[in-house]
Design goal:
Protein name (chains A, B): NADH:ubiquinone reductase (non-electrogenic)
Number of domains of chain A: 2
Distance between the termini of chain A: 22 Å
Catalytic activity (chains A, B): a quinone + NADH + H(+) = a quinol + NAD(+)
Pfam family, one (chains A, B): Pyr_redox_2
Number of helices of chain A: 13
EC number (chains A, B): 1.6.5.9
Number of strands of chain A: 24
InterPro entries (chains A, B): FAD/NAD-bd_sf, FAD/NAD-binding_dom, NDH-2, NDH2-like_C
Strand order of the largest sheet of chain A: 5-2-1-9-20
Oligomer: homodimer
Chain lengths: 439, 439
């Protein structure tokens, strides 16, 4: 890996997400050698992926080069690599670019879509956890309408214009709201020769309310907002199968849709080598102690989505969101320094800053520590909080400009099929050349 | 194709480039039915593609949805389709979405990279004529440096950091300049553990000067600018072969490079059905008369790169650039209306607004009608001209913001490998899912 041996202990961080980046920043200019590994060369701001899928933001504005985050820190080494296995015994990890030894290892690999073992759904549905996935969804949505123009078969056309989103968490709610606004504000103008009133957005939630992690008032308000926007909200329904067109559920309700977005669950990204049963929870998360130390592994830590710290307040571990990851990264950063200084470690305590979800224009719900509110103000708070946590000044400005433009013009201009998703829209001529340009 | 029959004559435009869009705008609300076909759903601003390849601009800011250009015009129909063949006898074209009849046909298919029949170069080199191609190049450049970090073989490392650009036209000059600035300003910060001084940018020109279409003073000044930036400029050298690493030329000079960007020539995109020998020129362009009417085809017109109008001033046809395409599109739009009104057509006269090329920060060359100038002022003029011709208010603002940021910060932040180009950087796990997301 060509990383020089240093007199400082080597801390290897796997993953440049919220947790990994927060940790890395805390280790800047400390007496440690930091090696950050990620399979992408950028940090990606997942909470805004749904806006990429719906043409509201350009993908590059919510991504930030990891090397730029680490610029100027002499003790930092970034490598573009996919970690395959951990060997705790010899303190070595094996990766796509070879083996690397560590003194301390921090697993911050985050989470991936969880299909709960349903292969059909995994193969035929769309996910929205990465930028390429979000761009694929953007292409598919636009291709569906281009194709709907070509068919005289009304059932086919309706299936092309039917968007079924499974999962009533923030991702599902925000995507459903954005699609509803596109249906209302953009489709009639872009497709005057298509009856886009027939387009449908169906949000399917297994539980008895949307945004189950939030307050009841937030849930019911979000539902009201969505219904106002014309989204069909289905509760207490679990999707059981999908063949690319027919969606079956555990009730007698079924859907015909070319597009199913699966936002019904996530699981921690698992790395081989540590998967001792007592360590892994149902969601593949690693059990950690109050210092994010993986149980039974002195030198291995886990933070963020991949870590399950069971506390009184959170018996199932902290929510798999940005905040716990950031705070755990910061706390671990300080603890690693204390550890090397021989000082006692400080247990992690989660400061819940509350949670928010936006449904659409002037429509958001917010549960803050002391106050819960919904509507226009919540929507503005949501925007400024997201701008604040977005990494990079240029990104903030560009995202802000886009939001202002979209708000004033009721528009989302990135309606571009840059990399066609459906085979029939891929140029035969360039297929060979560009088909390798995947992720 | 589900396009309603109308009492108005149907004008089919193939291609939503500069020419096609300019023509379509002139036909707004006229007594014609306009059908615009393009294999992409967006217009792309080719002059700025090199900034996408070098991370200076986000791809979405130089693309614009064609449907938005046509919004609000009741007589417009856009279809996402690749035209396969023209049948002039029956006035029908066949496309990827079926046949369509026309009363008048306008071929505005533009140009593509010309490899002059060299299959090795075509297979192993990078082109920069489309957004996906430019993004592939962006990925490859970044992947090269990530890989250079991993090898101890100095020859291999040098080959990874050697960028050979073939073709001394605007594209080659602008790309070379941008890469040189990245080498100077960004690489040392991003790759402190790599000796990026060894990175090389070689610009190979077959002729005896760069920018042969511009004035001698522009050529020599551009060359001075490039050499000041550390670009190796090679003249009177023709690249003869490339196997992916070894570049041979018609001299005893050769290069070892993993990246060869082929900007040495373009040819008109050819559509079957019209390719009668006397119609086609060396560059596949269709011979047209002063009204852009394809010789021998009353109802078929060609504009822009694909049209060769031989005049005294331009015996080989007009330059294959945006301006002739835009002006021919506008003139043809007016002529088609006159034609339908039974009025005589007006011959096309090209108003040469001059040409410009930018080499880098504060460095550009401009040949305007009455005045030729180089340096800072030319650079500002270049920027404002390009902002002006960029389609879309939001695009202009976002591009402007990026330029200001890049200028003030000596930075280019879109250093993102969103879709890895090299196989080894493509996630095995997502390969199946994402490899279809090509162009």
């Amino acid at each position: 890996m060509n990383i020089p041996q240093s007199s400082f202990p080597r801390i290897v961080i796997i993953g440049g997400g919220f947790g990994g980046i927060a940790l890395a920043k805390k280790l800047a200019n400390k007496d440690v050698q930091v090696v950050l590994l990620d399979k992408h060369n950028y940090h990606n701001f997942q909470p805004l992926l749904y806006q990429v899928s719906t043409g509201g933001l350009e993908p590059d504005s919510i991504a930030y080069p990891i090397r730029k985050v680490l610029q100027g820190y002499p003790n930092f080494y970034f490598r573009l690599a996919e970690v395959v296995q951990i060997d705790p015994k010899h303190k070595i990890i094996s990766s796509s670019i070879g083996d690397i030894s560590y003194d301390y290892l921090v697993v911050a690999t985050g989470s991936e879509t969880n299909y709960f073992g349903n292969k059909n759904i995994e193969e035929n549905s769309m996910a929205m956890k990465t930028i390429p996935q979000s761009l694929n969804l953007r292409s598919l949505i636009l291709e569906n309408f281009e194709q709907a123009l070509l068919t005289d078969d009304l059932h086919e056309r309706d299936a092309l214009m039917n968007f079924v989103i499974v999962g009533g968490g923030p991702t599902g709610v925000e995507l459903a709201g954005a699609l509803a606004e596109i249906k209302k504000g953009i489709l009639p103008k872009d497709y005057p020769d298509l009856d886009t009133r027939r387009a449908q957005i169906n949000l399917v939630q297994g539980g008895d309310r949307l945004l189950p992690a939030m307050s009841k008032i937030a849930s019911s308000k979000a539902e009201k907002f969505l219904e106002k926007l014309g989204v069909n909200v289905w509760k207490d329904i679990r999707v059981t199968d999908y063949d690319g067109k027919h969606i079956t559920t555990d009730t007698d309700i079924s859907f015909e849709a070319i597009t199913l977005v699966w936002a019904a669950g996530v699981q921690a990204v698992r790395i081989e080598g540590l998967d001792v049963d007592e360590l892994l929870t149902r969601g593949n998360r690693l059990k950690v102690n109050a210092y994010n130390q993986v149980i039974g592994h002195e030198a291995i830590f886990a933070i963020g989505d991949v870590a399950q710290m069971e506390t009184e307040a959170y018996p199932e571990g902290h929510p798999m969101m940005a905040q716990p990851a950031i705070q755990q990264g910061q706390n671990l950063g300080q603890n690693l320094v204390r550890l090397l200084d021989g000082k006692p470690l400080r247990p992690f305590t989660y400061k819940d800053k509350g949670s928010m979800a936006t449904v659409g224009r002037n429509k958001a719900v917010a549960d803050l520590k002391r106050i819960k509110f919904q509507g226009v103000f919540a929507w503005f708070v949501w925007m400024f909080v997201h701008l604040f946590f977005l990494i990079g000044f240029r990104n903030r400005v560009v995202v802000f400009i886009n939001w202002v433009y979209n708000y004033v013009r009721f528009d989302r201009e990135a309606r571009l099929i840059i990399r066609p998703f459906k085979k029939q829209y891929q140029s035969v001529k360039n297929k060979v050349a560009d088909s390798i340009a995947a992720d």
